[in-house]
Amino acid sequence: MRRYVKINLNPKSLKLMSRRYIFSSESVGEGHPDKVCDTISDAVLDACLTIDKTSRVACETFVKSNTVVVGGEITIPKIKGAALDSVMNIGSIIRESIRGIGYTNNDDVFHADRVFISNLLTAQSADIAQGVDSKKAKGKATAEQGAGDQGLMFGYACNETPELMPAPIMFAHRLGRELTAIRKAGKVKWLRPDAKTQVSVLYQDGKPVRVTNVVISTQHSEDVEIEEIRKFVIANVIRKVIPKDFLDASTEFLINPTGRFVIGGPQGDSGLTGRKIIVDTYGGMGRHGGGAFSGKDPSKVDRSAAYMGRYVAKNVVAAGLADRCEVQFAYAIGHPQPVSIHIDTFGTHKVNEENIEKAVKSIFSFKPADIVTQLNLLRPIYSKTTNYGHFGKEDKEITWEKTDKAAALKKTAR
User: Fold this and answer.
1) Which pairing describes strands 271-272 and 56-64: parallel, antiparallel, or unpaired?
2) Is 243 helix (H, G, I), strand (E, B) or coil?
3) Alpha-helix runs per DSSP H in 209-271
4) Vertex 157, ends 240 and 196: CA angle to 5°?
5) Which of 1, 226, 399, 405 is the most exposed place for a label (fewest CB within 10 A)?
6) CB under 8 Å, gap of 24 or more: what pairs does 16-22 form?
């Protein structure tokens, strides 16, 4: 069982931290319609990067009933203008993604082998490309690689869990991951791919102290009774995942509270890439700039810079410079430097926040090209990020989770 750390707050912490409050976060399973779309979009991205690591990809997916629509912009320099279909079978990528999720039951309207696919992918706009490319262009101020769009990005970390993530979202992700593992192992035949989890955590003096409520809705086959579902989920998912000392007699469990969840996935609701941005990040505990991640290559700063923000914030907390840290920076399209960088420790800093900010600026580079290099992002790794959050995962290929700069930050900020 993982150890969840009690926070020792700085006396200068905000007054808000001293009161009791409940904070909730949700996660969704791989079969949720929006996550189906994220999965397909990231699979297409990885396929492009496998062919050419300099591929420019912005792939959006829409699903409903038995239909999949993919659209967006893809440019693969290595194929030199050849048709995308000549080097990549988009239909096969889509069907294998759906199969991997588990939409293969005979009663599924949305089925890997039977969906209709519309492919609306085109090449990247030349106007956008010249802003991102590391070369001179008419009207462009520099020859450096610029940001692929304007916007603001946030990164966040806190010392509530071993992963330096907020407890509510990590609990919610763990529940969803366990439910999926049971389903894919074939241990429970009535489980189906669509699912949502939600965890409410009571905070006292800024510390997570107990879980007040757990909500799980899981799609199921027609032939199972609701009481069997509830008993199984409580005993084999919730009590297995949530640390024992966070549960008590007053913790409320709401399992399939509507009483029935047979019609799910894209049959029950439409799905769209990038619609679960809070699930993908910090469960609402940290702020979000609004940009989605899935289906976008790392030249898009709303993905790569958000990863960089997490990398910086996590190293600040790992260095012991603060109990909580949020990093914000903003970009202008085509411009190689961020237009602003801001550090907020919410009053939990152990050294002056200005010192932390200076140390961050001296150790990390926030140029889009440098972010890609520092985090080694030109690799087909993005299908690993799609489900159960882009942050807080233990995987050596998820480079933004490393804390290799903590020692240098600690030395420089003191």
Assistant:
1) antiparallel
2) coil
3) 226-233, 239-241, 265-268
4) 40
5) 1
6) 17/205, 17/206, 17/346, 17/347, 17/348, 18/205, 18/206, 20/202, 20/203, 20/204, 21/202, 21/203, 22/200, 22/201, 22/202, 22/203, 22/212, 22/213
Binning the chain into helix, strand and coil, the percentages to the nearest 5 are 35, 20, 45
Q: Which among 157, 368, 396, 180 has a CA at the least distance from the CA of 281?
A: 157
Q: What is the pLDDT of residues 56-88, one digit of tens each?
A: 999 999 999 999 999 999 999 998 877 788 889
Sorted by sequence, the CB contacts under 8 Å of residue 90 that are 6+ apart come out as 44, 70, 84, 117, 119, 121
Radius of gyration in angstroms for the set of CA atoms belonging to the chain, rounded to a whole number: 22
Task: Give the pTM.
Answer: 0.90
Tokens 């304007």 correspond to what residue?
Answer: 150
Using pLDDT thresholds of 50, 70 and 90, give the confidence band for residue 157: very high
- DSSP reduced 3-state for 382: helix
- Contacts (Cβ under 8 Å, ≥6 apart) of 373: none
| Contact between residue 60 and residue 295 where contact means Cβ atoms under 8 Å apart | yes
Residue 75 in tokens: 């440019």
Distances (CA, A) of 263 to 187, 228, 260, 390: 21, 18, 9, 28
Alpha helices in 201-341 (DSSP H): 226-233, 239-241, 265-268, 277-280, 301-318
Residue 275 has a CB neighbour count (10 Å cut-off) of 19
For residue 375, the 8-state DSSP code is T
- Residues 315, 406: Cα–Cα separation, whole Å: 5
> Which pLDDT band, with edges at 50, 70 and 90, does 12 fall under?
very low
SS3 at position 138: coil
Instruction: Please list the residues that pair with 298 across neighbouring strands.
Output: none
Query: DSSP readout, 54-118?
Result: T-EEEEEEEEETTEEEEEEEEE-GGGTT--GGGT--HHHHHHHHHHHHT---TT-SS-TTT-EEE
